[in-house]
């Protein structure tokens, strides 16, 4: 009967997050039975409006059924990454300017607060600077390797250009090694 309902009305199971079962017979050992009886069903048109909807199984709390809770709100979980100074930045164009600009911003308050805010300004300056300049050596390595592959497969690239690409690749690998050393 349930399967006929699902088939006839063309509804879909939303799925779930949490414990896999929503019901159990409260027995133990070989007599225990667990099943996912409770579900959230939806029409495909509904999913167009709530495409990130989820259903949470709340866990068994004394009853034989587990409460379920549909959620239609989009959750954006943004984790704060710890800021680490990257040695590869030293000597790059604009590096010193980021520091000078950050320390030049006027901050009021006690000296300890000023120093903390100035350090925060440096951190934020480096974050913005990095986003603008894309210092990801792994991406550069992949890009250079692709360009070298195209040069070898399709030709039309001078020996000097290939040599320059190889030097750029060596440099990018060197920067990647520095980055990986810092991660350890």
From TrEMBL:
InterPro entries of this UniProt entry? Endo/exonu/phosph_ase_sf (IPR036691)
**UniProt-listed PANTHER family:** BNAC02G09200D PROTEIN, VIRAL MOVEMENT PROTEIN
Return the protein name: Uncharacterized protein
């Amino acid at each position: 009967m349930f399967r006929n309902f699902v088939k006839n009305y063309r509804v879909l199971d939303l799925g779930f997050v949490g414990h896999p079962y929503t019901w159990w017979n409260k027995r133990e050992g070989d007599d225990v039975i667990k099943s996912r009886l409770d579900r959230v069903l939806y029409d495909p048109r509904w999913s167009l409006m709530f495409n990130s909807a989820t259903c949470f199984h709340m866990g068994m709390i004394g009853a034989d059924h587990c409460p379920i809770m549909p959620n239609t709100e989009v959750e954006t979980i943004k984790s704060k990454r710890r800021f680490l100074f990257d040695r590869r930045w030293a000597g790059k164009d604009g590096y010193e300017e980021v520091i000078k600009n950050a320390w030049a911003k006027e901050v009021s308050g006690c000296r300890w607060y000023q120093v903390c805010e100035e350090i925060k300004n440096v951190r934020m300056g480096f974050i913005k600077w990095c986003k603008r300049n894309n210092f990801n050596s792994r991406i550069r390595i992949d890009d250079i390797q692709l360009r070298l592959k195209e040069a070898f497969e399709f030709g039309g690239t001078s020996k000097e250009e290939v040599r320059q690409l190889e030097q750029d690749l060596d440099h990018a690998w060197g920067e990647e090694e520095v980055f990986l050393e810092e991660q350890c």
